[in-house]
Amino acid sequence: MTATVIHISDGMVIKLKQKDTLFLTLNMRGTMKSITHTFNSFRRTLPLYMAGILLSGTAHAAIIQTHSFEGLSTGDLNGQDGFTANTDVDVESGGQTYTSGTVNSPGGTQNITMTDTSLNTAGLAFSNTFTSQTDDVYFSVSMTWTDLTGNFVYFAVSDDTDSSGLTSSAGFYFNNSGTDLVGRMRGNTSGDTTNSLLSNISTTQASTQLVVGRLYKDGSSNYNKMDLWLNPTTTTEGAAGVTITQDLGVSAVDTFYLRGGNSGASAVLDLDNISIGTTYQDVVIPEPSSLSLLAVALGTVFVWARKRKK
Fold first, then answer.
1. Which of 236, 275, 228, 253 is nearest to 63 (CA)?
2. How far apart are CA 216 and CA 226, in angstroms?
3. Which of 47, 144, 276, 290 is the most exposed place for a label (fewest CB within 10 A)?
4. Can you tell me the distance from the alpha carbon of 286 to that of 236, in angstroms, rounded to the nearest whole number?
5. 307 with 39: CB under 8 angstroms?
6. Which H/E stretch holds residue 41?
7. Do 43 and 306 form a contact (C-beta atoms < 8 A)?
8. What's the mean pLDDT in 219-229?
């Protein structure tokens, strides 16, 4: 028995076999599901499949905000997709794809880039806001970099009260030699800061790195704990690479940003797939992309079935 195979993505394969039988295998949020149908019944039930899958995706998804930078105009990021940014922060062709183990975060065709002009300017290189959160907040960002040999390039989530991007914040930064990636939590005064090494790194990194974080409250009304992962290999939340404890002095967060510091004269930082969610899976599995691929997959089979019947 021969079969026509349509490869939609790493987790989604369609096999069109003889005797009008459809085998559809897909991987959504780490769970393998299979559908077997005759083409005649498939044509009748396609709308129900589409509605059911899309509704199930939106029912359990808790993505607060995600930015893949697809469809934005190339050039200045400022004013696009809710961002406030320096003039040196640009949307460009590229895309930071991260794949390791069961984690697959496609980079698309665009990302944002910053050079030494933004990275050497103390203060916010870019910022964006999301719906205020008072429970667990997860975040992720994909990135590559060149010549990050300077001090304190800092990505964080925070409330929106400090324009300098320092107090009441939690995230990660590149240290002054560019050889360490460091987790950081800072309260609402300058002395309330706790740093902890996440990983040793290279000053130049051409392969995409994925940082995932969880900010939460542990026996406190304020956010006071953060877990960080670097380059996770599973879509199931496991032990963190580092856990930091520090009272941020705030009970709600609604902003993410990147703050410049000092960097090498030829420094470049590319970022992609910035996500904010309420679960680990929200920020390591690109759910909207998966659903879009599924729509393409089912549409492809539907067209194929119609042509075959004629």
1. 275
2. 6
3. 47
4. 14
5. no
6. helix 39-60
7. yes
8. 97
CB neighbours (10 Å) of residue 68? 24
- The answer to whether 237 and 280 are in contact (CB under 8 A) is yes
**Domain extents for the chain?**
3-61+290-309, 63-278
User: Mind listing the pLDDT tens digit for each residue in 241-294?
Assistant: 999 999 999 999 999 999 887 666 678 999 999 999 999 999 998 644 444 555
119 touches 267 (CB < 8 A):
yes
Q: Decide: 24 and 34 in contact? Cβ < 8 Å.
A: yes
Nearest to 254 by CA among 87, 118, 105, 139: 139
Amino acid at 98: Y
State both tokens at 51.
Answer: 């509605």
Mean pLDDT of the region 104-114: 93
Report the half-sphere exposure of 282 (CA within 13 A, side-chain side). 22
| Residues 63-278, CATH architecture | Sandwich (2.60)
3-class secondary-structure state, position 235:
coil
> How deeply is 97 buried, as exposed, middle or buried, from its count of CB atoms within 10 A (0-12, 13-18, 19+)?
middle
- Cβ pair 230, 198 in contact under 8 A: yes
Report how far residue 81's alpha carbon sits from residue 73's, in angstroms, rounded to the nearest whole number.
10
DSSP 249: S
* More confident site: 105 or 14: 105
CB 72 within 8 A of CB 90: no
Q: 113-161 pLDDT, tens per residue?
A: 998 877 877 678 899 999 999 999 999 999 999 888 766 789 999 997 6
| pLDDT at 306 (0 to 100) | 61
- How far are the Cα atoms of 8, 46, 89, 285, 307 from residue 35, in angstroms, in the given order? 15, 12, 45, 22, 21
Task: Find tokens 């990505």 and name the residue.
Answer: 155
Give the amino acid at 179.
T
| Total count of residues recorded for the chain | 310
d(CA 125, CA 142): 17
